[in-house]
């Protein structure tokens, strides 16, 4: 490969320990947390999965407004809420595209898991053990159904 990916940084777990090799597990956990976005919110970066909960919150507001106005639902209220719903579509579609692209990139690096054989080795990940690949897949490959 002619570029470095997140997965390549897992080599650092074998390098960045000071006195005890067991410290490599701490480095590994830190790296996987950063890759998965677990602490991205604290650093001000986009936090994967943030869009869906925000949209769900906005949808709750639309539902409440429609329930409140259900008895005297005017055409203006319907149009207003349709506008709110249309505005939510673009961020959701972008989130879906992002998740699909990330999943495709990680599947390519980790070996496509569509055959049901988890932990497939590729030339890109020859240095990882099968258990490592399974853990990376579970923690990093975004679920299209989550959120």
Quick summary:
With 147 residues, this protein is mostly helical. Helices cover 54% and strands 0% of the residues.
Protein architecture, described:
This protein is an all-alpha fold. It is built from 4 helices and no strands. The longest helix has 36 residues, at 75-110. The protein starts with 22 loop residues before the first helix and ends in a 7-residue tail after the last helix.
Supply Rg.
21 Å
Shape: elongated
Largest β-sheet summary: none
Q: Tell me roughly what share of residues is in helical segments.
A: 40-55%
Compute the number of strand runs.
0
Unreliable segments of 5+ consecutive residues: 39-47, 115-119
**Tally of DSSP helical segments:** 4
Order of helices and strands: HHHH
Whole-number average pLDDT?
Answer: 74
Strand content: under 5%
Task: State the separation between the terminal residues, measured CA to CA.
Answer: 32 Å
Class per helix and strand makeup: mainly alpha
């Amino acid at each position: 490969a002619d570029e470095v990916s997140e997965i390549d940084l897992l080599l650092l777990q074998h390098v960045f320990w000071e006195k005890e090799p067991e410290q490599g597990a701490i480095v590994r956990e830190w790296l996987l947390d950063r890759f998965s976005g677990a602490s991205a919110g604290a650093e001000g970066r986009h936090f994967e999965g943030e869009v869906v909960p925000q949209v769900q919150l906005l949808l709750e507001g639309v539902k409440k407004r429609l329930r409140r106005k259900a008895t005297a639902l005017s055409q203006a209220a319907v149009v207003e809420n349709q506008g709110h719903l249309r505005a939510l579509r673009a961020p959701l579609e972008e989130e879906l595209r992002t998740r699909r692209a990330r999943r495709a990139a990680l599947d390519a690096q980790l070996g496509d898991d569509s055959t049901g054989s988890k932990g497939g080795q590729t030339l890109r990940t020859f240095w990882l053990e099968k258990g490592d690949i399974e853990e990376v897949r579970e923690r990093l490959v975004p679920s299209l159904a989550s959120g």
